[in-house]
Amino acid sequence: MEKDAPQRERAENTADESSQAGARAVPFAEALRFWVKLGFISFGGPAGQIAIMHRELVERRRWLSERRFLHALNFCVLLPGPEAQQLATYVGWLLHGTRGGIVAGAFFVLPSVFVLLALSYVYAAYGSVAVVAGVLAGFKPVVAAIIVEAIFRIGRRALRGRAHVAIAIAAFGAIQLLRIPFPAVVLGAGLIGFLGARLWPKVFVSARVATPKSSANERGEGLALAIDDDARPPAHATASGWRAARILAVGLGLWVLPVAGLVAWMGTENLFVHEYRFFTTAALVTFGGAYAVLAYVTQAAVGDFGWVTQAQAMDGLALAETTPGPLIMVLQFVGFMAGWNHPTEMGRTTTAVMAALVATYTTFLPCFVFVFLGAPYVERLRNHAGLAAALSGVTAAVVGVVASLAVIFGRAVLWPGGPGGGIDEFAALLGALSFLALSRFRVNVVWVVLAGGIAGLARVFLG
Known about the structure:
By secondary structure, this protein is an all-alpha fold. The protein has a domain at 7-160 and 209-242 and 368-382 and 415-462. 74% of the residues lie in helices and 0% in strands. It is built from 19 helices and no strands. Helix 3 packs across helix 6 and helix 12 runs parallel beside helix 16. The protein starts with a helix and ends with a helix.
């Protein structure tokens, strides 16, 4: 088997492997430009980011079909860590192998690394970000509109019959009313889908609605799908023990080398090494997105380690919610403030920046390993009836979960002072106009987001 490894390596890094998987090749340079752009426009946490990717990848650019997108999303939802960043990594890998996945996943995060570092410094040093807050306040209603529009768009295709509608409603109630943990909801929906397809196939399977290959009112009209429903797994989707062992070895090496360097430089009892261990653990054991992660991290960072205060942790979540990139970037803010509050001889700012980068690196390294390790198996099992049924249940639950997030986010945007504080008329008007621009006039989401930021900035200066 080792004898075939070089051949697999060459196949994995061939430039336009997507041509083997569908009717149209996506040039690597074109994909690179998109992943860079996505990193700057991925606002709104996982729900908003998934909505943006669906709109761009499935409808506008037609790089993959609806079902292939949902299949990848279902897998990423089951993983610990930020599902939107892992979804970008998966799609990048599907199109262009390992280098495509690395580029997609890395550029999804990099812009937010620098933006949040700058905002963290302003927050820590000056405690006032009035102008920035005004711009970000303009983004919030746009993000709410993106999420709501995505619920309608994805729900129409993902909810294939009454059984899946029932799962979506149950997931919404479980999250919104019963406060059941996100992983339990997703796993329960998968089990219901799997058992339902076996016990009541007419209800769970035959209700499938075919996804149209093109739509007259979408910008992607006339473009052939690069990866359609029936396209075979790409050549680099090689599922083997050798490949899995190689990925694990590389991932372990990338984890061990930096921490070994930190220990050799500063010893075992320093902030950076403690952060390295702690944020690695958080990345491996926290399911359910950034809110679940923040609960776990806050308990330890505030109570056990004394790195940050409760107020600082919540302020970090607010900053992360209104900057591009995954919401889990709040962990970078926690790392930054830990370094700011507990500086070393390097100085407060240098300590904070280094601590922030340690938190980011250890948070996202496992994400790449999980995707590269599992994606080939998920692709090979795509047409497995039991897995497809389970993942269809997960898809339905995701619609309900996103709807729950839309309610939470919309409530915070429209009633910033709480239900008794009155509605924010500016946010309501901007959100309605954004929804109309996206759903009726199909305006590019980039321009809608930018317009929201400009409106928020204008509101600050006009009083």
